[in-house]
Write a structure and sequence with these properties.
hydrolase; 19 strands; TIM Barrel; ALN_composite; single chain; binds zinc ion; EC 3.5.2.5
């Protein structure tokens, strides 16, 4: 692939600006060499190949900063090959893999090496890695520095305490009904230590923020009131106050990240926000006080609401939970107004048997939404009602995630950047049914199956390589592991 070009009525996003005129993007050695207006383009230039995408939208490839590909160790849940094929088919050109749900967790130089080895020659898009901040390394700055020097793009911590004996299993915390938990949770002191080490590296700390302080279960004890097949039982078990309490505590340490503060240079990013009330207000306040803080939410919190989740349909179980329709409206408002900085998939699959689809027990089923391939059409389709623009999609899914992950040459279409590009047709409608080419390993556990969506991805380029086109992938897996230097 020598050149990707746009012609005809193509709408082309240079960086984030929509140019209604006609442009041609020249790609050379994996990077964008020039962006030329139609009337100025030189057909006698040395372009090797010219592709005309007609009416399609040409946009920077999506960067998903929150995906669990479960490789090595649990590749039967997803794995790098199917996960990155699904990403490519969904217009994602870079994803950052979470340090948990694979085995072992990515918490040291050695375990990062295992990740890189598992990814080599098996990834269809570029993949970076977050390292884990866990109690065993949090008070050991040299261990953390060793992990950061080995190339993780930042650290991830699970700040989640469930202080009662109820069998609730979260996406980030409890591994599966066998009771494995190989990614221990952190507290405020660990977070503070992590931030002070990260400051030197100017890399972020991502945090799953949920905390249950009461020793009592929030579930009532009345006989029959807590049907485990009822979504409301699960929802009650993880109220918005769990997010709020965690975020309130986290924000006591983020003042260290202010300019001139002891952790100036570090940054705290709150993952998968679901509560759009008090939790969001706290984040707004911290930003107002110049704490270095950002927040993401995920398409499933923007697409679904608790009211529509049928009894026993554990495909919708995730943590924090999908809340009511009013919460969803407020979440959209926050995204549209810029209080939520970016979106991520939090693709967190497992094997169908652990989703307990037949039993339908929300309290025992694996928590995690399978979505990787669908995030672009989902954001676009469900965003229509709110007037989502292409520029906003590029901001939430490309530019800001690139900044969080420290990828200066990604996230926008600009001369000198990597030619990471998605070509897609926003008007094309499709049904996510058995006939649709789905590339995630276990389509049956995805809450999106059966939905009608708008926005079909026609081609995806990673570093100028055409990795996906109309349902087919390139024969070679030519994505590369991205390591921080
Ligand atoms: Zn996650």
């Amino acid at each position: 692939m020598e050149a990707a070009s746009s012609a005809g009525d193509t709408r082309f996003l240079s960086g984030l600006l929509l140019h209604p005129k006609l442009y041609q993007v020249e790609v050379k050695d994996g990077k964008i060499a020039s962006i030329v207006k139609e009337e100025e383009k030189l057909w006698n230039s040395k372009l090797g190949q010219v592709i005309d995408y007609g009416d399609a939208v040409v946009m920077p490839g999506l960067i998903d900063v929150h995906a669990h590909l479960d490789d090595p160790g649990r590749s039967e849940w997803e794995g790098f090959p199917s996960g990155t094929k699904a990403a490519a088919a969904g217009g994602i050109t870079t994803l950052v893999d979470m340090p948990l749900n694979s085995f072992p967790s990515t918490v040291s130089r050695e375990t990062l090496k295992l990740k890189i080895k598992a990814a080599e020659n098996r990834i269809y898009v570029d993949v970076g890695f977050w390292g884990g901040l866990v109690p065993e390394n949090a008070f050991n700055p040299s261990a953390l520095e060793d992990l950061l020097n080995a190339g993780v793009l930042g650290l991830k911590a699970v700040y989640l305490i469930i202080a009662f004996g109820l069998a609730i299993r979260g996406a980030e915390s409890f591994m599966c009904p066998s009771g494995i938990n190989d990614f221990p949770m952190t507290n405020t002191s660990h977070i503070k230590e992590g931030l002070s080490v990260l400051a030197k590296y100017r890399r972020p700390l991502l945090v799953h923020a949920e905390i249950q302080k009461d020793l009592e279960s929030p579930l009532g004890h009345e006989h029959g009131a807590n049907d485990p097949r009822s979504y409301s039982t699960y929802l009650k078990s993880r109220p918005p106050s769990m997010e709020e309490t965690a975020i309130r505590e986290l924000l006591t340490v983020t003042k260290d990240t202010r300019i001139g503060g002891p952790a100036d240079g570090a940054h705290l990013h709150i993952v998968h926000l679901s509560d759009s009330s008090s939790s969001l207000d706290l984040i707004k306040e911290a930003k107002h006080n110049s704490d270095s803080v950002t927040v993401e939410t995920c398409p499933h919190y923007l697409a679904f609401s608790a009211e529509e989740i049928q009894d026993g349909d554990t495909r919708f179980k995730c943590a924090p939970p999908i809340r009511d329709a009013a919460n969803k409206e407020k979440l959209w408002e926050a995204v549209m107004e810029g209080h939520i900085d970016m979106l991520s998939s939090d693709h967190s699959p497992t094997e169908p048997k652990l989703k307990l689809l037949e039993e339908g027990n929300f309290l025992k089923a694996w928590g995690g939404i399978s979505s990787l391939q669908f995030v672009l059409p989902v954001t676009w389709s469900y965003g229509q009602k709110y007037g989502v623009t292409l520029e906003q999609l590029a901001l939430w899914w490309s530019e800001r995630p690139a900044r969080l992950a420290g990828q200066e040459l990604k996230g926008s279409i600009a001369v000198g950047n990597f030619a990471d590009i998605v070509v897609w047709e926003p008007e094309v409608e499709f049904n996510l049914n058995e006939e649709y080419p789905v590339h995630i390993k276990h389509p049956s556990i995805s809450a999106y199956m059966g939905r009608k969506l708008n926005g079909r991805v026609s081609a995806t380029f990673v570093r100028g390589n055409l990795v996906y086109k109309d349902g087919n992938h390139a024969p070679a897996a030519c994505g590369v592991p991205i390591l921080a230097t």
